Amino acid sequence: MKIVVYGAGGIGCYVGGRLAASGTAVTFVGRQRMAAELAAHGLHLTDYLGADLRIAPGDVRYETEPAAAAGADLVLVTVKSAATESAAAELAPVLKPGAVVVSFQNGVRNGELLRSRLTEQVVVPGMVPFNVLNRGAGVFHQGTEGALDVRRDAALAPYVEAFQWAGLPLTQHEDILPVQWAKLLLNLNNPINALSNLPLRDELSERAYRRCLAAAQSETLAILDAAGIEPAQLLAVPMRRFPSILRLPDFLFRRLASKMLAIDPLARTSMWEDLEAGRPTEIDYLNGEVVRLAESLGRPAPVNAKLVELIRAAETARRAWSGAELLRELQR
Asked: Strand 139-142's sheet: what is its strand order?
């Protein structure tokens, strides 16, 4: 089988690299900058459990043109959400009918957008629940736990074993939307982490930052209630209990939510990476998605709207916010 990772940045290089390291043939398609980096260094994949996998430069097939996806049986789309439409336009004339296309992207609408353009292919919405840090020189590190979530589809059957061997089993769901919204609820921390300029574990260890996240999640849960959407339970704690746990004093939080803080000290969010690199962020597809849903219901979403505003400002002029400063800004 021919597997292609389309838009191979951090997530794409890590997921595709794990498949390649376990013996599956993978072609990566992405930017020239990444192609040059991997040609020089190869892939070095690590995770919070101690995995340490290497793929030599000569064994990494990294292309820069959409034509490299021709003949693919399975395509993993890992472009940033803002690039989904252009990726679909590039893939449409290239992919063979019946090819399976999996969206491993943030947000809740990318699968629908791909399906609207790739009408002769099987499009499967999915998501990556864990964090991947691009450390440079071909090194990609998984800093938090999780497998891969996808909507159940019989077309995935030929590939299940390959993902299992790669250590990234596919968890299939009859309805992926509640799972995507649950992940989005967790990803509401992305802008807070990016604005803090701290590693995830350090940020979540401070109550003021957690109160910011609790405010964004509480607002979102109320909007989801109004929309009739019940988020799935991804972790041991039900999503509806998260805000109250996040608001606990530090000593109680450390005692009751120790697993939440069992994060690799290297872990950062992709939004922090984007700001560091001077790239546009995915804020419109995270907190912006909450604001969009609220507007469709005629409801306000001031906390999430403010986080969108702050990240857009940070895209042009960065500053590190203390937890107290950020909380005051969100409470205005």
From this structure: 52-55, 43-47, 139-142, 132-136
Dump pLDDT digits (tens) for 93-133.
999 999 999 999 999 999 999 999 999 999 999 999 888 98
Supply 250's token pair: 């530090």
CB 188 within 8 Å of CB 282: no
- pTM of the predicted model as reported, rounded to 2 decimal places: 0.90
Which are the contacts of 37, defined by CB distance < 8 A and separation ≥ 6? 136, 137, 138
Sheet holding 74-77, edge to edge: 61-63, 26-29, 3-6, 74-77, 100-104, 122-127, 148-151, 170-173
In tens, the pLDDT along 69-94 reads: 999 999 999 999 999 999 999 999 99
CA separation for the pair 6, 105 (Å, rounded): 11
Q: Which residues of 142-172 are buried (b: 16+ CB within 10 A; e: fewer)?
A: bbbbbebbbbebebbeebeebbeebbbebbb
Q: What backbone torsions phi and psi does residue 150 show, to the nearest 5 degrees?
A: -140, 160
Residue 283 CA to residue 326 CA, distance in Å, equals: 17
> Are 89 and 72 spatial neighbours (Cβ–Cβ below 8 Å)?
no
Q: How many CB atoms lie within 10 A of CB 107?
A: 23
Tokens at 175, concatenated: 């309805």
271: enclosing H helix or E strand: helix 270-277
Provide the 10 A C-beta neighbour count for residue 70.
Answer: 15
Phi, psi of 320 (to 5 degrees): -95, 125
